[in-house]
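We treat protein structure as text, and this decision shapes the records that our systems exchange. The remainder of this section carries one protein's record, kept here as part of the documentation:
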Amino acid sequence: MSCGSAQPLFFQRQPVLALPVQRFLRLRLEAALENPRDRALLVWPTVLGAPKLRQEFPGGIPENVILAHAVKMLRDLGIDDPQGSWREGIARFPETAEQGDTGFKPHGDWGSMGPLVSLRSGVALSALAELPADESYALKAGLVLFNSALYHETHDALEAVWKDAEGGLKEGLQGLILMAAGYHHLQLQNRKGMKAVWEESLLRLAPFAGLLDTPWGRVDHRDAIQCTRERMAYLKTGTEGFEALWAMPVPRWEMS
């Protein structure tokens, strides 16, 4: 995985999410990161907020339709009981859905962001679905989320590893977290924020020469460092606008 021209869906400007939506997404991702089986919690918002289904069933999506659309996603996670998974998810997180005239609607806390919640949940689910449920899960989750341009979610994944790390590993993970934070600021087009965290990221990562050894493998971030340096050089010119920043290569991390 390296810098390249292929752009992930979320590698573009993003809206600031309302606080209830941020909380909604964070709680489900945290559960999915702590227990790989809980990746199923990302299935339900993916289905409930899907624009085509919402258009077809404006009064609420019937439960049987929800389950039918969830079957394949759940099977990919090794879950063969859609109804049980659905009811467990609603019981744990009642703010997932509310009853409508003909079925279930996204909870009112989603506001107008239903399609974005659906898409963001779906991309996160797709990124996490094929990861092995072993000791490397959290670190690899951080990598695949970063490569999906889900930079805020990358922070959550790597923070779980960072908290238990020590020494050089802790410092290197902090550098990667800060790199992801800078790209999150880019998505919000916060010039001051991205510059500040990228400066610290590059400083912390400098001793590793783009290769961070971990107990689960080596994180190769050499090309991502180059991508970030190119953007930092542009920011230091004082040139206004974000078009050039988006046109530069997409950063990626590789596990070896």
User: Anything to note?
Assistant: The first helix runs from residue 19 to 34. The radius of gyration is 19 Å. The domain at 137-255 is CATH 1.10.3450.10 (Hyaluronidase domain-like).
